[in-house]
Amino acid sequence: MSCLSKNTLSQLPAEVIAPSYDLDNTECGIVHIGPGAFHRAHQAYYTELALSYGGNWRIHGVSMRSATLKQKLAKQDNLYTLSVLDNEPSMQIIGAIKSLSVLATDRQEINEILCAPTTHIITLTVTEKGYCLNQHGDLDQAHKDIVHDLANPETPISAVGLLVQTLKTRRALGHSQLTIISCDNVADNGKKLKKAVVGFARLVDDSLGDWIEASIAFPCTMVDSITPATDDAFLTATNTNLGLEDQWPIQREAFTQWVVEDTFSGPRPAWDKVGVTFTNDVSFFEKAKLRILNGTHSTLAYVGSLCDKETVFEAISSPTIRSLIEKLLNTEIIPSLGDNSQIDLQAYAQEIIARYENKHIRHLLSQIAWDGSQKLPFRILDTVRDNIKLGLPFKLLSVPIAAWLVFLCKKSVNGEAITDPKADEFTALAKECEYVPSVFAEAVLNDTSIFAELSDFEQFKHLVLEHVKTLSQLSQEGFIQGLEDIL
Ligand code: CS2
């Protein structure tokens, strides 16, 4: 089988959409940090569509650590397939990513492109943990990567350190027009990133902090599209349909949404012509998406895994789990958001449940279960906080927290790997607690780096511990019964 590349585009089946712009003469205007599956299925897709309106808006991708993507896509001119798996499937070749580099080996090249006057936008998908924030949402100055970068400002390893180094050089060169866009599921992502970058800069040079604050735009965004990781079955099926070998195709559902705050410093691609929404206030969209989609996603991940379900589709197909999700949405999550005429929250939530029922994709719960210590504060704990303030219930919001704690304890006792920056701490703690779920749960609940002031809120802790007792039942039937009792 021939390899997907510029030279083989003419061999694609007629129904596969190929780049419509001149791949050889279109340059980069965007640098993206963290070109994982989500970026390639989402921002790169919108940019691909916008490129047909002209402009040098291709993307240079920077991987912070892994060289795998660069190696795999090198053989195919950085082209890859985006496969939309839904009732109406489709395939499109994305050419928006022009070049890729890896921080560990290509630092010089990365610095040049980040500081080039032709780079007008830097986007990021570095996941929650990539921002190095503490439990209050501020830059964690004790984070090992930040400590490293403050001591070695010329060879940063964190995204925040890399941005500050870039901005220092751009200031010296007089290249101020730049917009930096966080595309991660972090509440107030633009504001937090700005605060972290300005905070870091001030530790190095106060006037640099002032300059960044005055000249660089950090719009907030809401990003949404369910993008399961590429697995062997999907890879084989894609290559068969394509008739060409693509080493790293990407899959996603048909639904996709990108809402961006309209505060750019400098030009941007024709994103507004291809479905991106620009608005003065993203915060409500962002909050609603984080709580309604990501909050229930994490609930499905932990509760579903404890019931031996493998995928989102399997979990939402269980009547008990589905009623937990519906009740959680109706009685605790949607009320936490208050009234807002921008979105019909009931309809929005129903649409999200329908997206979970997409039988064409296998979205593994284990993928969503990663990094709970980083995700749950934004997805669940902020909602608990609002409900406490508003006098609303948080009994069901305590369920995903309890399920996460039982999940971590079970993984530890079975000697299975946990994917989380705090994985080592959790496994050691579980051992210390002799793998007794309620003892382990109480110890984690006292970790203020995750729970902040909620560690001292007895009513919340009590509810979580009650659920832990119920959910740590051994048998699957016992577990379902336990859930029903909670409901
Ligand atoms: C998921 C998200 O992996 C996860 O934690 O909840 O990646 C989710 O699929 C996206 O935010 C959907 O937009």
Q: Do you know the CATH topology of the largest domain?
A: Rossmann fold
Beta-strand percentage range:
5-15%
The total beta strand count reads 11
Please write the CATH class name of the largest domain: Alpha Beta
Helix percent band: 40-55%
In terms of per-residue confidence, which ranges show pLDDT below 50 for 5 or more consecutive residues? none
Widest sheet: strand ordering:
5-2-1-6-7
- Name the CATH homologous superfamily of the largest domain: NAD(P)-binding Rossmann-like Domain
- Counting helices, strands and paired strands, the structural category is alpha/beta
Described by strand count, sense and barrel closure, the largest sheet is: 5 strands, parallel
Using only C-alpha atoms, the radius of gyration works out to: 23 Å
Distance between the termini: 54 Å
Shape: globular
Number of helices: 21
What's the number of structural domains? Answer: 2
Labels describing this entry:
487 residues, alpha/beta, Rossmann fold, N-(1-d-carboxylethyl)-l-norvaline Dehydrogenase, domain 2, 5-stranded parallel β-sheet, 3-stranded mixed β-sheet, 10% strand, binds D-mannonic acid
Description:
It is a single chain. By secondary structure, the chain is α/β, with parallel strands linked by helices. It folds into 2 domains: 6-280, 3-Layer(aba) Sandwich (Rossmann fold), CATH 3.40.50; 283-486, Orthogonal Bundle (N-(1-d-carboxylethyl)-l-norvaline Dehydrogenase, domain 2). The chain is 48% helix and 10% strand. The protein contains 21 helices and 11 strands. It has helices spanning 37-41, 43-51, 68-74, 107-115, 144-151, 159-173, 189-204, 206-215, 232-242, 283-306, 312-316, 319-336, 345-356, 365-368, 372-390, 398-413, 423-432, 437-445, 448-451, 458-471, 476-486, and strands at 28-33, 58-63, 80-84, 90-94, 97-102, 121-124, 179-182, 221-224, 250-252, 257-261, 277-279. The strands form 3 sheets. It has a 5-stranded parallel β-sheet, sandwiched between helices. Strands 4-3-9 form a 3-stranded mixed β-sheet. Helix 17 crosses helix 18 (437-445). The longest helix is centred in the middle third of the chain and has 24 residues, at 283-306. The mean pLDDT is 96. The site of D-mannonic acid has 10 residues, from helix 10 and helix 14. D-mannonic acid binds next to helix 10 and helix 14.
